[in-house]
Design a protein that fits this description.
Layout: H1 3-13, H2 18-25, H3 29-36, H4 44-53, H5 59-71
Keywords: DNA-binding
InterPro entries: Cro/C1-type_HTH, Lambda_DNA-bd_dom_sf, TransReg_Diox_bact_type
Protein name: Transcriptional regulator with XRE-family HTH domain
């Protein structure tokens, strides 16, 4: 599974809009939109901020998906 697909899945499971997730994570809507649509790869700091905002315990899962996407 790709990072952007997993991010969208997690966001929708919590009934969050891109704007609401952006507010919680301190990431702009336009950046989040680009990440979720697979246009850009997030930095490690952004991945961690998103994991915290989404209350993801296993941050390594998201970090690994993001790393794999940037290597591919």
């Amino acid at each position: 599974m790709s990072f952007h697909t997993r991010l969208k899945e997690l966001r929708q499971q919590q009934n969050l809009t891109l704007r609401k997730l952006g507010e919680k994570a301190g990431v702009s809507y336009s950046i989040l939109n680009s990440i979720e649509n697979g246009r850009i790869q997030p930095s490690k700091d952004v991945v961690i901020a998103l994991a915290i905002a989404l209350k993801i315990e296993d941050k390594e899962e998201l970090l690994s998906l993001a790393r794999n996407a940037s290597e591919g």
